[in-house]
Design brief:
The chain has about 240 residues and is mostly helical. It is built from 10 helices and 5 strands, in the order H-E-E-H-H-H-H-H-H-E-E-E-H-H-H. A 3-stranded antiparallel β-sheet has the order 3-4-5. A two-stranded antiparallel ribbon has the order 1-2.
Length: about 240
Amino acid sequence: MDVEEIKLRTIANLPTIINSMTIYPLSLKEIIDHGYYLYNRALNLISVKRNQLIDEEYANQIPDEITTADIIYHSGNEQLIAQFEDSLKLFLKTNDIIYDYYSGLIINNKAINADVFNEMIRVILIQNCFVASEEDAFNPLNERAKKIREKMLENKKKIQELNSDSSDEGLTLSDLISIVCSNANGINILNVFDLNMFQFNDQFNRMKMLDEYEINIQALLHGADSKEIQLKHWMSKIK
């Protein structure tokens, strides 16, 4: 499915259907109820690549139909398997997830092949505005390719930033919610938690662009050097 179609459905708070698998965007209320730290850990875990779980040279040799789910379930690491399964249950809103070592991942009684699994993960990451950073990358393993690093994903979970501007560093989710409620048209403390993460992120970034545009216009009107101001209209595309 086209990225723009996924974004349109998500900003409309509609689910995306991949091969009869319905993927609903999570609301802020659901994320907070689950636990924001656990939500971010789940995003990091389902976004992991094959060459982050096993030796890169070996990862390039295994067939494309072997997914990260297959590698995790065959790892023997019960803690990692449980965390991965919990992550899928959170984003797919189902407890009906099992793994058969012959059929692979089975969700709601449907076998999930590699194409469906990868597309499913892509939808979840788009719905949640997730961009993995180099700092969060997993270290590749040694030659024993199927042995998952025991402390993977532990003690190093950085809260996912909702935007990349360095001036917003240190702001917590509660800070961002308060900012949007104080400035955004029609969004208040009574309805903000019904927004999904994509909707919230979109409104926060658009509000910030509008604020920066107005500040820069005022600076130019008061004699600021136009060469020192990067004027970008607030109706520009959000990156």
